[in-house]
Amino acid sequence: VQLVQSGADLRNPGASVKVSCKASGYTWTSYFIDWVRQAPGQGLEWMGRIDPKDGSTIYPPTFQARVAFTVDTSTSTVYVELRSLKLEDTAVYYCNVDGNWGKGTLVTVSS
After folding, report:
1. Looking at residue 105, what is its pLDDT?
2. Burial readout 80-109 (b: 16 or more C-beta within 10 A, e: otherwise)
3. CA 38 to CA 43: how far, in whole Å?
4. pLDDT tens digits, one per residue of 26-82
5. C-alpha–C-alpha distance, residues 79 and 61, integer Å
6. What is d(CA 3, CA 85) in angstroms, rounded to the nearest whole number?
7. What share of the chain is helix, strand, coil (3-state, %, to 5)?
8. Could you tell me if 66 and 14 are in contact, meaning their C-beta atoms sit under 8 angstroms apart?
9. Which of 55, 65, 75, 91 counts the highest number of beta carbons within 10 A?
10. For residue 104, what is the DSSP state?
11. Closest C-alpha among 3, 29, 32, 31 to residue 93
12. Across 25-90, where does the E strand assignment appear?
């Protein structure tokens, strides 16, 4: 399994950010894809899960109002979009497939 994530991003508060994770090395529809983030000095925080077979999603209450996962089956890529960014959304965002991790994408929210 290989997971290649998009590069670091800098956003202003109130903006949106979209991070991608391109998967390869396995059958795309075999596993759910999770998104997890880690803020500086904090633990891992689960942001939710998407089933690439049908695009169905599960979001924890803390993210449900601001996050959206989408998939592009033609490129085996999954996206996370986080809206209404806050300073505390500054974190490294990871995709995870069956215990395999992308390298992470640093999103910095700063005015």
Report:
1. 98
2. bebeebeeebbbbbbbbbeeeebebbebeb
3. 6
4. 998 899 999 999 999 999 999 999 999 999 999 999 999 999 999 999 999 999 999
5. 19
6. 25
7. 5, 50, 45
8. no
9. 91
10. -
11. 3
12. 33-38, 44-50, 57-58, 67-72, 77-82
